[in-house]
Amino acid sequence: MAGRGGAQRPNGATQGKICQFKLVLLGESAVGKSSLVLRFVKGQFHEYQESTIGAAFLTQTVCLDDTTVKFEIWDTAGQERYHSLAPMYYRGAQAAIVVYDITSQDTFGRAKTWVKELQRQASPNIVIALAGNKADLANKRMVEYEEAQAYAEENSLLFMETSAKTAMNVNDIFLAIAKKLPKSDAGNANQQRQQGVRLNNEQTQPSESGCCK
Amino acid sequence: MAAEVGGTDNEKRESVVSIGSTVAYSSTDDTCLINFEQNGDRREKSLSDSFVVAKCRSKADPEGGETETDSKLCGWLVKYSSIGFVKTSKLHWFIFGDDTCKLYYYRQPQDLLPLGEIDIKHATLFFDASNREKPGSFEIRSDGKVWHLEAQNQQCMTLWLEQLQRKRRLYNKRRTVISEKITWTHRNKQKGSGLTGQEQGGSAQGAEDPLNATASSSTDRADSILQDDAQEITSSSKTGIWSLVNLRKEIRNAVSDIRMQISPTQEKLSPPHSPCVEDAKEEWTILTDDMDSNNMPPVFAAVQSPPPLPPNSSAALAKSGQKTGGKFASTFKFLKAKSRTPSDSKEGGLKKQNSRSGSLSCAKCKQLEDEKFSAQEELKDVEEELQANREIVRLLQKELDVIRVSLETRLESEGKSNEEMDLMLKQRDKHVVELQHSMATLQEEKSLLAQQSKFVENNLTTFRDQVSMLQEMLSAKDETIVQLTHKIFEFESNTHDRGDDGERQHLAPLMPSGIVPDAKELETLKDTVGAYQLQNKFLTKEITELNKLRKYDEQREKEMLMNYANLEALYYQTRSKYLFLLNERHEPVRGDESNKTEEAVTQLLQEALESETEGGADHSRHHFMSSYSMEYDCYGFLVYAKEEETDDILVAKANKLEWQSHQLANRIKDDTEATSRQIKWENFMVGQSGKPLQRSPELKALVRMGVPHAFKEHIWKGCINLHVGATRDKLGPQYYKKDLGERIKNSKFNPAVKQIDLDLLRTLPNNRHFDSMDSDGIPKLRRVLLSYSVHNPLIGYCQGLNRLVAIALLFLSEEDAFWCLEAIIEHLMPKDYYTKTLASAQADQRVLKELVAEKLPKLYAHFEQYDVDLSLYTFNWFLTIFVDNVRPETFLCVWDTLLYEGSKVLFRFALAFLKYAEEEILSFKEAHQIYRFMRALGERITNVKKITHIAFHELNPFPMRAITSKRLHHLLQVREELKELDAIRQDFQSSHSQHSLEGYASEDDLDDVKEDDGFLS
């Protein structure tokens, strides 16, 4: 994998920035959070993905021009009951994907609550993306694209309708997030991450972790 | 002890068949010898607990044992053992384990662990018929050891031996058949009520049925042979009796002949006869009478006949003799039925000879008799002659009278004419002279005859003397005959004794007055003969049995050799390929040849990839290998579900093969240990049968070794009932099936339903019992979860519970799975583990962190250094009891111990996992590497044995008190924090709800409503 970071690579030709970002997926149960991650990370899709309990952790690297962006993906459990664990996961995250199911209005409502919570509780500059999953089930659509689009714009969120099953927009949404994330040079990225995490561990007040610029 | 075993001879035959869910084991019941537990019935009614126990008490008839082909063999036996010079004998409870073909013995039937075991598989059985003091003792020789055992009596012993033989044969047969089909470890005889049990039972049934059929047919055949034997023996014994009877008749005839010869003379002469003769005669009457009525050997009758009595009471004696003989006949009637040995007929032959020699000695006597007869006849003749002479004299006198009358008339007429008278007188004188002359001659003749008569008389007296002398001689001869007969009997018993080694009896001193043979002695001798016959029969059977066993073994060996040869061939094939490949690689590539090499290599690769399918086709032969190439494991999990980043088929294949070889190597390595574990469990289960589970140190240790698949249901159910038994009883048997079902129907809106339905197929997607809506486990899972949500509305449904139920359903019935969930949530886990806030679960993570700091300080520091939050991984482990990316073998081990010991084992195992991988984790110098590793940690743990060792030994001490106090401390903290978080959320939710387009009720809000309902009800 990436070893100890690009800065230490002896080969100057491929030297590019390596950024590591912590990304968290939130959303109602069974909207397809884990499936999105699985599609993105392994390119696989299982009709019935084991329900996530607590959280799952995966990594994936994407290349943006000369920058290598490495995602640490925290896939959380959707059931309301696990809500109380969520802060543990979104704490210190630089990005979040809030997922809803386009065939269920409830899940969209839930997504909104998550956005709200992230905006208040997570890092202030967190990049939040809204994903309307299960776009392949358009015939059962309950949440209109426009409605979600409007909400996303209102809250300055990235928005895409995705389908883990068909892989539609899956990579795109991650790439879009990667693009939007602030990238400094490689050494900084590493430092940043560590600093960020440490800060988050020490103090839960997100307002004080203003290092992600 | 001896009294307990000995028992009484005339115990009533009694067989009790009790049907019910409980078995009454009465340890005090010393007559209870053999218990039969029908497994057949049990298998049929797998879902109900009922099974049949047939107890055959006392002299359990062997037929009963034969008909119950699938019975459990158990009973009390005395075990003799000698430690050094000290010999001890103890009464133990013996149980035969059908699965292991071993005889286990316990101090009491209730005991959990046996004192020891005897391997019957290769044992030879033996009993010594000459050991008459302990008729029930027998020996089992196995593994170079000899076990001396003793049953209550001989019947029991033979029953034990027969049963052991039969079981041994069945086991070996089964082993031979099974070795062709499935490996023994995968054999699962019992059909469990869990999902895996059903499946296994189903698949195993097909394989077993023909097996049972052949086994039973073989026993049938053996039985029929046995019966034939028995018939033969009875018939032969019958002929023995017949010949004996005939012989006796002969003897009797001979004796009565003698008597007949004697009696006429006695009647005729009737002098005072000697009492000796009289007695002898009387004796014989008794004997012959007895023989007539009973066909009894004279010895028995003689025992009862009183000592010689004076002649006047001889008639009474004869009568009483008859009577007592009759009585005797009824008492010893069974003896008649007893089989006779050929030696009996020999005795008969001897007897006959002796009787002949007796009659020979009589020939002399007969000669004398003849002489006597001729003398008597002569005497008679003489007397007759005498009589005739007298007659003549009388006639002459009459004539004289007539002449005198005529003379008188002549005198009257003389007056008429003298001349005439003179003439007449002359004539008359002449006549008188003539008459006188004739008279004189007659007189002369008479005196001669008188002389003659006198002579004859003299002659007669001499003859009479002679006769009396002969008579005396005869009586003397009689006596000698009697003595000789007596001697014959003694000689008989003597020869009998000679046949008996060591048990030679003393010759009873000759009794002059009559025959009083030792009946008891004869009886014991006959018993001994019977015992020897039995032994002989048994040993012959044993030999044939052993031969059969050897045949089975040979068959097995041949198969194994075949398998071995095949595998070896395969191995060499692969090796040659490998060498070829190496060769190709080593050779320098020369232009055009590179293509050729590549071609060869690709061909080899192709072959390597195809080899798997070949192996699949050869399923039956390579059972050992193929059991690992199956798609699903014994729990229904996909074996190769988790294929990590498979870029290349070849790499995937290599990984797969590596894993396989690893498994195989492990299995071979652990094989002995696994079998010893299996045996320990079987021992335990054999003693357990039917009783409710009880906590004990032995069981604890056993559970920590892991509960074998076959016994999981029983043990889990037992553990669950330890916790929820009382609740279950209180709520009644209909609670789950009826009450909750109705409550589900009646509840209008259950917020849990939606989440449950969403999760059904997301529970264990890799398990074939839960992989589609049609799978057998899904409806059960749904019902259990729904039932629980109405049973405990405070918890309702929490993601993770679905996995718990699914795992429980693999081994337990639906209802038991429900109670398993209840036990876990309410009793095993701390309170508040699955409730809305998961407070206790969160607190446990902090407890774990502290424990890591305590027990694994290096690792703790490492995690701190790289900011790794352990709870990200461990939280799932705790909440789902390790059913989260952990191999089934591993998490089932956690389940076993958790169900028995409680939630402390979660910490033990979590720490053990970390300790197991400590070195590796410490080697990572990057956070994401640690994350990655930690994610896959659960799957890496394959060495269950090592993990349990770490968990239960290396991590000690592990005091519960410390954990409890830590839990309490952190729970309070977590609650505090949760309150804060809740406040913040409430705050923004209230502001948010103003913005929201439509109000929507969250699941937990609804839960809250439900909670209130629940409390109210």
TrEMBL record, chain A:
SUPFAM superfamilies: P-loop containing nucleoside triphosphate hydrolases
Superkingdom as given in the UniProt entry: Eukaryota
Keywords, alphabetical: Endosome, GTP-binding, Hydrolase, Lipoprotein, Nucleotide-binding, Prenylation, Protein transport, Transport
Enzyme class name: hydrolase
EC number in record: 3.6.5.2
Subcellular location: Early endosome
One GO term of the biological process aspect: protein transport
Major localization class: other
Polar residues biased stretches: 187-213
Region (Disordered): 185-213
GO CC terms, sorted: early endosome
CDD domains linked: Rab5_related (cd01860)
Record has Nucleotidyltransferase as a keyword: no
PROSITE patterns reported for this sequence: RAB (PS51419), RAS (PS51421), RHO (PS51420)
GO molecular function terms attached to this record: G protein activity; GTP binding
Coiled coil stretches, renumbered: none
Catalytic activity: GTP + H2O = GDP + phosphate + H(+)
NCBIfam families for the chain: small_GTP
Family membership: Belongs to the small GTPase superfamily. Rab family.
UniProt name for this protein: small monomeric GTPase
Organism: Pomacea canaliculata (Golden apple snail)
TrEMBL record, chain B:
Residue span(s) of domain PH: 70-169
Keyword Coiled coil: yes
One GO cellular component term noted in the UniProt record for this chain: cytoplasmic vesicle
Listed Low complexity bias regions: 205-219
PANTHER family, per the entry: RAB GTPASE-ACTIVATING PROTEIN 1-LIKE, TBC1 DOMAIN FAMILY MEMBER 2B
Name of the protein: Rab-GAP TBC domain-containing protein
Gene Ontology molecular function, alphabetical: GTPase activator activity; small GTPase binding
Classification via InterPro entries: PH-like_dom_sf (IPR011993), PH_domain (IPR001849), Rab-GAP-TBC_dom (IPR000195), Rab-GAP_TBC_sf (IPR035969), Rab_GAP_TBC_domain (IPR050302)
Coiled coil: 365-399, 432-459
Biased composition (Basic and acidic residues): 341-350
PROSITE patterns assigned: PH_DOMAIN, TBC_RABGAP
Ranges of residues in domain Rab-GAP TBC: 706-902
Disordered: annotated span: 188-223, 303-322, 339-361, 994-1017
Ranges annotated as biased composition (Acidic residues): 1001-1011
Entries under Gene3D superfamilies matching the protein: Pleckstrin-homology domain (PH domain)/Phosphotyrosine-binding domain (PTB), putative rabgap domain of human tbc1 domain family member 14 like domains, Ypt/Rab-GAP domain of gyp1p, domain 3
Pfam families cross-referenced by the UniProt entry: PH, RabGAP-TBC
Keywords (A to Z) from UniProt: Coiled coil, GTPase activation
